[in-house]
Design a protein that fits this description.
Length: 584
């Protein structure tokens, strides 16, 4: 119940739909049990006592009851659906909003398939209970209660005999639920595994194909698919084992009813109409009880789904605006690190160890060092994707936490090694960070990133729709669109994280030229493995195992005998010199 209480904010505002849906359900139940009562009246009073003048009234009454029942069923279902649909509409929005603001720390370990299934299957499971399951539970209590009441009113002894087998039915339903519930849980788990497999396969298709792993992947999918199939068959075996048994118990009740009820009619203790009414009423008890397992199942599924949704909704958002955070349109881009240390996980080594440096507005800082030395971590602290464990990161003399996240993100442009392009038009991709940008500004950004020419060659120019992974464009072209996107925001701090490592030398040359144009007036951080990418930087920082081991300009660093930078330089240029020597 705790789960439902915690999620109350989503469904309780729509209680009016729910209450009306239940009121109408009461009417439906009333009309349903009215049928056998009318039948009893018709047989015992109209037919047996030959009061035929009542026939038209009963016929009209029956017609209206049927009509009213139809209307009540319609509105009960409609309002119930409205209740569930509206509630999960809000819930879905809240979950999506949460996903936008969850810290990167959360995404480091989150699985896309799992999150997708929470946002779809779990939300749907919760809606089903709100729209349908809860009403069914109430319907069951009312229908069974009312039918029992009428049976005992007509004939307590017949009611007892008829319902004598009922405890067996309840016991069977209980046992059925005990077996079927974990089986359903397994199906859900197996389905989540299946969808995760498909999602991973589609995302990693390039790797699969390039390593010729299609057969292997089919095998792995086959295992998951077989598991899903087996779980389903196992569950349907439980159903097919229990349901005929439940029906059998139901029919025992009917046999007892006919036997003892027939005897009571013969001896004149009850009238035939009562026996006929009992015949309907007994199924109004047996059928809902047989469905009890299913209803309880929707309840426990909704509870499990609700818990999974709460796990996302209650995830702490540790990186957020403090109360009096400053919002600024434009920062100067003066970045300072003061004794910054950072680790991603408590039991991991320091990713950054006591880093201090200053980047004045408009200057270019190059970051170089081995894989995993902490270059990206520095830039992730500037954008406040993560919070440092120790020390301070300042922009324009104020700690990052003084600014709103929007201010920081609006003033920083990031181009990654492989940038993500959305499956929308080229124009929308470029103006993603600045949707109000005019067409001139978009074209200007594209020209500055040397993308304008190839965009004009696309079938619909700037309106060309890109595929999910920027389909139809080469790596370099995608990269140039990503650079245009960063320029379009006009950031005061630009971060180029390995932005040219995936493209050929010629494209790199073009992108470099574009960068030089773009970097004017912005504080720029260039992360690169190639010295050629950052040799023109005002200051180069050499990283090793999370520490800064050298800093200075290209010329200064080359002066250092046995220096790290010089070693990298020699490694990268040795071949070239050798080649030139040999060519002479
Ligand atoms: N999200 C993360 N969660 C846990 N550890 C991380 C995370 N990101 C980086 N690390 C760890 O932090 C250290 C520094 O990583 P970082 O990405 O900053 O290095 P890098 O110099 O940019 O490497 P590369 O050149 O390969 O991009 C590494 O040991 C890495 O394993």
């Amino acid at each position: 119940m705790e789960t439902f209480k915690k999620l109350k904010d989503f469904y309780w505002p729509y209680k009016v739909y729910f209450i009306w849906s239940i009121v109408l359900l009461l009417a439906v139940t009333g009309f349903t049990v009215a049928y056998p009562v009318i039948l009893q009246f018709t047989i015992d009073y109209i037919i047996l006592e030959q009061n035929y003048e009542w026939v038209p009234y009963v016929a009209i009454g029956f017609f209206f009851i049927t009509l009213l029942k139809g209307i009540a069923v319609y509105y009960h279902q409609y309002l119930g659906d409205l209740f569930g649909i509206r509630a999960v509409f809000e819930l879905r929005n809240a979950l999506y909003k949460k996903l936008q603001f969850l810290p990167f720390r959360y995404y480091d370990n989150a699985r896309t398939g799992d999150l997708m299934s929470r946002l779809t299957a779990d939300v749907e499971g919760f809606r089903f209970f709100l729209s349908f399951g809860f009403a069914q539970l109430i319907n069951l209590v009312m229908l069974v209660g009312l039918s029992l009441g009428i049976m005992f009113y007509y004939s307590p002894s017949l009611a007892f005999v008829t319902l004598a087998a009922m405890p067996f039915l309840i016991l069977t339903v209980y046992k059925f639920d005990k077996e079927v519930h974990p089986a359903f849980k397994d199906i859900r788990k197996s389905f989540a595994g299946l969808t995760t497999k498909v999602q991973e396969n589609i995302s990693g298709m390039t790797t699969v194909k390039s390593l010729s792993k299609e057969e292997f992947e089919m095998g792995r999918f086959g295992d998951k698919n077989t598991d899903y199939k087996d779980k389903f068959i196992f569950t349907s075996n439980i159903w097919s084992k229990y349901f005929p048994f439940m029906e059998l118990i139901g029919h025992f009740c009917v046999v007892a009813l006919l036997g003892y009820g027939g005897y009571l009619v013969i001896t004149g203790e009850i009238q035939p109409g009562v026996l006929v009414a009992f015949f309907s009423l007994v199924w109004f008890i047996i059928n809902p009880l047989m469905n009890l397992g299913f209803i309880v199942n929707t309840f426990s599924q909704a509870k499990a789904s609700g818990e999974r949704l709460l796990q996302v909704l209650e995830e702490p958002e540790d990186i957020m605006d403090k109360k009096d955070a400053v919002s600024k349109d434009r920062l100067d881009g003066h970045v300072t690190f003061e004794n910054v240390s950072h680790r991603y996980d408590e039991d991991e080594d320091l990713a950054l160890d006591n880093i201090s440096f200053e980047a004045k507005p408009g200057k270019t800082i190059g970051l170089i060092g081995a894989t995993g030395s902490g270059k990206t971590s520095i830039t992730q602290l500037i954008t406040r994707f993560y919070e440092p464990d120790k020390g301070r990161v300042l922009i324009d003399g104020r700690p990052l936490t003084d600014y709103t996240l929007k201010t920081i993100r609006k003033n920083t442009g990031v181009v990654l090694q492989e940038s993500f392009l959305f499956s929308s038009s080229v124009k929308d991709n470029i103006s993603y960070g600045n949707p109000e940008a005019s067409m001139e500004r978009i074209i200007d950004a594209a020209k500055r990133s040397d993308a304008h020419e190839f965009i004009m060659d696309l079938p619909d120019g700037y309106d060309t729709i890109l595929g999910e992974r920027g389909g139809g464009l080469s790596g370099g072209q995608k990269q140039r669109i990503a650079i245009a996107r960063a320029i379009c925001v006009d950031p005061s701090i630009l971060i180029l994280d390995d932005a040219t490592s995936a493209v050929d030398m010629e494209t790199e040359g073009k992108i470099q030229a574009a960068f030089r144009e773009v970097m004017k007036g912005r504080t720029t951080f260039i992360i690169a493995h190639r010295i050629s990418s950052l040799m023109h930087a005002d200051e180069i920082i050499v990283m090793k195992d999370g520490s800064m081991v050298e800093r200075g300009s290209h010329a200064e660093l080359l002066q250092k005998d046995n220096g790290h930078y010089r070693r990298i330089y020699e490694l990268q240029y040795k071949d070239k010199h050798q080649f030139l020597q040999e060519a002479k």
